[in-house]
Amino acid sequence: MTTEPRTALRIDDLLATRVREPGRVGAKAAARQQPAGLVGETGRLLLVAADHPARGALRAGARPTAMADRVSLLDRLCVALARPGVDGVLGTADVVEDLLLLGALEGKVVIGSMNRGGLAGTVFEIDDRFTGYTADAIAGAGLQGGKMLLRIDPHDPATAPTLRACAEAVDALAARGLMAMVEPFICERVDGRVRNRLDAEDVVRSATVAAGLGGTSAHTWLKLPVVPDMDQVLGATTLPVVLLGGEVADDQGAQRETWRKALALPTAAGMVVGRSLLYPPDDNVAGAVDAVVELMA
After folding, report:
1. Taking a C-beta distance cutoff of 8 angstroms, is the pair 248, 279 a contact?
2. Kind plus residue range of the DSSP H or E element containing 14
């Protein structure tokens, strides 16, 4: 960012707490002001996503290791969370607890990221094991739900155990009355790397599989990418859908226009945006956030 990080002077306090008073994390979680519901004043849910680093995915636009600078990431998150219309955050425990100690999560919706074991660029990427939050940990920390990534590779047998683990997580969250946010993709390996298939037919297929996981869908939300023919995609489910912001685009205006059109469809219940808000090309985090908030109305 163009200014000095606002959180920089408090990093020493974070470290001191983690070294000398780790119990303060639980105490702060227990005392945290809870949100009134899952949606804010707009009637939709807008979350900032920050669970990428735990999967080894650090790129943002042209910057290959942008998210590796934790002070910068926290500063950007604090800026975003302070903007009117931002309902909360999606992250792993390390990021969530830093934000908790910084006082940035009061009254916010917090969704814990659950399966981060499918590390980016590895041969075991599709074997996406649950290495982050559990349903018990989410409930114990007073979070509002859990998010899971479900990549379905028709040629990789590791898809099956990930499907089962996601179904079990949906049930475990539902039993506690917590949101289960499922982010599905049909994918394939191209030159050894996992690539998501982002056409309407494949996104529809992934959405219908995700919607059927577990013994109840009462608390299930879907997190789906914005692709051409979104009317077909969102017409495939009656579950609430939050739109995935995706990669940082050079043309932010054009990207937001595709989001605006998708948000006009009936089952679009909000957005979860990470790098596009936190690392916009002009580094104006507040401006990028405010532009997306305008789309929520």
Report:
1. yes
2. helix 11-20
Full domain range(s) for residue 29: 8-296
How many Cβ atoms from other residues are within 10 Å of residue 193's Cβ?
10
What's the residue count for the chain? 297
* CA neighbor of 173 nearest in space, from 128, 129, 136, 141: 136
Per the DSSP assignment, residues forming a β-bridge with 50 are 91
Q: Is residue 234 part of a domain?
A: yes
Q: What is the pLDDT along the chain (297 residues), one digit of tens a residue?
A: 544 556 655 778 898 999 999 999 999 999 999 999 999 888 999 999 999 999 999 998 888 999 999 999 999 999 999 999 999 999 999 999 999 999 999 999 999 999 999 999 999 999 999 999 999 999 999 999 999 999 999 999 999 999 999 999 999 999 999 999 999 999 999 998 999 999 999 999 999 999 999 999 999 999 999 999 999 999 999 999 999 987 777 788 888 999 999 999 999 999 999 999 999 999 999 999 999 999 987
Judging by DSSP bridges, how do beta strands 109-113 and 241-244 pair with one another? unpaired
**Opening angle at CA 150, ends 273 and 202, nearest 5:** 85
Q: Which one, of 65, 56, 61, 51, lies nearest residue 93 by Cα?
A: 51
CATH number at residue 88: 3.20.20.70
Distance CA(281)–CA(60), nearest Å, equals 10
SS3 221: strand
pTM of the model: 0.95
The answer as to whether 166 is a domain residue is: yes
